[in-house]
Amino acid sequence: MSQIESRTVVSREEWSQARKAHLKNEKALTRLRDLVARERRELPWVEVEKEYVFETQEGQRTLAELFGTNSQLIVHHFMFGPDWSAGCPSCSLEADHAEGAIVHLANHDVSYVRVSRAPLEKLQAYRRRMGWKARWVSSQGSDFNFDFQVSFARENLEAGQLYYNYQAIEDPKYFSEELPGLSVFYKDESGTVFHTYSSYARGNEEVIGAFVYLDITPKGRNEKQIMDWVRRHDEYDASPAGTTCHSG
């Protein structure tokens, strides 16, 4: 029997009592989220001493130049390997959500950019397919993805040596050349860039509103494995759920 089929039906009064009891936990979660956000802002920084260079539509640009006129930069480490034919469906879901936020970020001293190792031409073609506007640059030939632990050398994968999400990974399901992440940087008035924060794996869920919406529905995310239902937004009528990040 499914959770839906076994659900108890009660009077409006009984429902209100149960809802108020649950509200206590919701409020506690909100306060905890505020605490975590404050702790995140208070984390120490590390100066970025290596000069990373990216391929952009305007030519080669350094990490510092990706800030534009803003002092803060969010980088979406978008899974798109050099030999892939399309971007990761799960990263595409996250990108869909970012599109609407970019104008608000830009007016709050925050620049946003997607970074992938695929060639720039592939990134721009997929960007056009998805109808996205956000800036997307290629880190192909750079150490950027490897240094920020979202791309991994094949010899490391073959040896079962992966360090991801601040720990050594032994679960084979994470053994991929590309994994997702978000990184945040700050540039001071002298032009010095600092790395302030990175999150990986489910740590990125906070920016995906579809999860929040699904979590308030009776069936929830209705998944057997994390994100097994996600498809690219132009594939919902054409392909089965469970599309992997390596499919075209």
Number of helices: 6
Q: What's the arrangement of strands in the largest beta sheet?
A: 1-10-9-4-5-6
Measure the end-to-end span: 37 Å
Known CATH architecture of the largest domain: 3-Layer(aba) Sandwich
What structural class is derived from the secondary structure elements?
alpha+beta
Q: Could you estimate the helical fraction of the residues in percent?
A: 25-40%
How many whole angstroms does the radius of gyration measure?
Answer: 20 Å
User: Could you give me the name of the CATH homologous superfamily of the largest domain?
Assistant: Glutaredoxin
Task: Please write out the topology.
Blueprint: H1 12-41, E1 46-47, E2 53-56, E3 59-62, E4 72-77, H2 89-106, E5 110-116, H3 120-130, E6 135-138, H4 144-147, H5 154-158, E7 162-164, E8 167-169, E9 181-187, E10 193-200, H6 209-215
Parallel strand pairs: 4-5, 5-6
Antiparallel strand pairs: 1-10, 2-3, 4-9, 7-8, 9-10
In short:
The protein has about 250 residues and is an alpha+beta fold. Helix content is about 30%, strand content about 20%. A hairpin with a 2-residue loop joins strand 2 and strand 3.
